Amino acid sequence: MPLSDRDYMRRPPPPTRGFRRPQGSWGFSVNPLWVIIAVNFVLLIATFIGGKLYITYNEVIIDEIYRLNYYMGLMSAEFWERPWTLITSMFAHAGIGHFIGNMIVLFFFGRFLTMLVGQNKFLLVYFVGGIVGNILFLLLGEPLSLAVGASGAVYAIAGALVVMMPKLRVYLYFILPMPLWVVVLVFFFLWSFIPGLGIAWQAHMGGLVVGLIAGYFYRKRGGYYYVR
What we know:
Rhomboid-like fold, mainly alpha, 8 helices, two-stranded antiparallel sheet
């Protein structure tokens, strides 16, 4: 037997690379998607506990708003007094229905995008989309309108998925199967341009555009995979 064929003379195989989830100091996995959802939930509870502010005119109550949402929400007329609202408004919600709708979409779409591109790129799309959506609201929204919600960031996640996997089948309301691009397009127009709903379409549009751009570059660069 040649010397090079003996086991102790062979080179060891190169170490295999595997995906390792980031772990906290106690050894458990830290999932940024669940962290975002948890922070939104805690702040929703705090919003209800904090009570409401009442807006009066000639001693008549003309409007009411949750106290915490006033300090976390985005308003262009008072932005320079509360610049932190560019970020905090993404974690505040107007009520339970608003919260549940955003978090359900974020959970399913966010988990899928994370599987495709990883946690860091998911977070990049989420926060850049939310911030750009908020900036667009500051520029185009009504000066005294207050915007809260994660919708801009959620639309960014959806936009990225639309470019990367447009024909992905999703179940609308868990019943009706439709291609992903159709679902996103329908909901974008329904929840952005129907008059009287008081929705910040500017944030939706800004987030969606960021997502579409990110999805284009992620798809062009490749390197993502999906296991059925």
